[in-house]
Amino acid sequence: MPKPQNARPWAPSRRLLTACAAVFAAVGFDAVAETLSLSEALTRAATYDPSRPAADARVQAAQAGVRQAGVRPNPILGADLENFAGTGDIGLADRSEATLYYEQTWERGGKREARVDVARAELAVAQGRASVRALDLLAEVQAAWVEALAAEAQIAVAEERLALARRLEGEVERRVRAARDPLFSAERARTATAQARIDRDQALAAAEQARGLLASYWGAGANFELGASALEPRAAAPAGTLPDTPDLRLLAMERDLSQARIGVERARAVQDPRWRAGLRHFGESNDVAVIIGGSIPLGRNDTNQGAIARAQAERTAVEADMAAARVDREREVSRLTARRATTLAEVTRNDAEVAPSAARAVALVRDGFNRGGGAFTYLEVADAQRAVIEAKARRIELLKRFHLDGVRLDRLTGRHAALLASAEIR
Questions:
Q1: How crowded is the C-beta side of 27, counted as CA atoms within 13 Å?
Q2: Using alpha carbons only, what angle is made at residue 406 by residues 255 and 330, rounded to the nearest 5 degrees?
Q3: What is the dihedral of CA 415, 419, 420, 421, to 10 degrees?
């Protein structure tokens, strides 16, 4: 059909272009969803951490305590009026005496320095507890990341199980129609397919929940991908001297705090004198005199020995806690390292022995089943396929256990402590 002379070439409207751009942008966003690494997940969680303001407030409170600890006692400005009322001549106003004085306590025994030491130690403990709490959070995030990885991997296994069940169902139905198998074989196959479909749906839901839980640590949607290769075991770090971790440093800070409190209690055992100076006015002669004076507790009964002994016992307890924590950590690291090695060995043997053997069994049974002989039935094929699926599911569970033990090891060795500093800088 000839084109009219006055026809204009078609051009899309602006509204259509905008709608298409929005659609392509949405599709493109999903298509290029970033792969979330462990370090990125930990960084996001550390940056978002909703409990950080509380930890910062506690540190600020400790800093205020340091400033307050260095303050000297306030002086006293006082006044006395004597002999202004009484009997006889004492009641005459012109015989009263008025005294205005200035009084100051002189701290001895290094009380102010001891208070400052305690306040600084409390500041260090507050900062140490914030670091330990942040590491606990990162361990939770790392465990959630591993759970999400394993859940994603289980989807592929569930999909394969469903595909095998559907294939076997079709083969069994053909054999039933050819009168090679009884009717209940087809019903069994349909039941297995239905169960495999349910398992696949459950795997999808579990993966979605695991991704949502992981994303909740930084308050965003689960618009990310998890690389399947991240579930594969990584080479274990060689055994060596265990590093000094924030947990052990916190115990050391608490030990320093208890030591500083001993200094405070010892300083309190030293009595503080008070001195005063002032002016006294004599009403009878209208004269003024300078007065000075002072006082000091005798320290006869209360020498603060009980408080000193208590502070010393608390320091001993913290030192014992430190020794026990080191032993417990070394024992747990050894146990987890050995279990990870055992788990990795099982994964290796599963890959080298179980999985290939199960695959060969499926091939042999299916070959006989497809030839139509009566020696191989639906049950033999289903059992052989089940062994393959179980081997793959078992491998995922082993890898998940391997990485979860790694989470605990990373927490015990403080592997992610350096990441906290970078998150604070951001």
A1: 6
A2: 40
A3: 120
- The position carrying tokens 């205020």 is 64
pLDDT at res. 329: 93
Burial of 333 (0-12, 13-18, 19+ CB in 10 A): middle
Q: pLDDT by residue (tens digit) across 36-85?
A: 899 999 999 999 999 999 999 999 999 999 999 999 999 999 999 887 77
Distance (Å, whole) CA 100 – CA 79:
4
Tell me whether residue 229 is exposed, middle or buried, using C-beta atoms within 10 angstroms of its C-beta: 0 to 12, 13 to 18, 19 or more.
exposed
Cα distances (Å, whole numbers) of residue 220 to 97, 117, 147, 216, 319: 78, 43, 18, 6, 43
Contacts of 217 (CB under 8 A, 6+ apart): 41, 44, 45, 48, 137, 140, 141, 144
Span 88-117, pLDDT tens digits: 666 556 678 899 999 999 999 999 999 999
User: What's the length of the chain?
Assistant: 426
Q: Angle between the 378-413 and 111-177 helix axes, to the nearest 10 degrees?
A: 170
Distance between CA atoms of residues 150 and 144, nearest Å: 10
Residue 71 is given by DSSP the state P
8 A C-beta contact, residue 175 and residue 373: no
Q: Tell me the per-residue pLDDT of 323-370, one tens digit each, with 9 for 90 and over.
A: 999 999 999 999 999 999 999 999 999 999 998 999 898 888 877 777
Residue 418 reports pLDDT greater than 80: yes
228, 233, 217: which is closest to 143 by C-alpha? Answer: 217
**What's residue 30's pLDDT?**
44
What does the pLDDT look like over 206-232, one tens digit per residue? 999 999 999 999 988 878 888 888 888
The residues facing 102 across adjacent strands are 77, 277
DSSP-assigned letter for residue 90 = G
Tokens representing residue 382 in the block = 């289903």
The 10 Å Cβ neighbour count of residue 107 is: 17
Residues 6 or more apart in contact with residue 377 via CB below 8 angstroms: 181, 185, 369
Alpha helices in 70-228 (DSSP H): 111-177, 183-215
Tokens describing residue 371: 């030839």
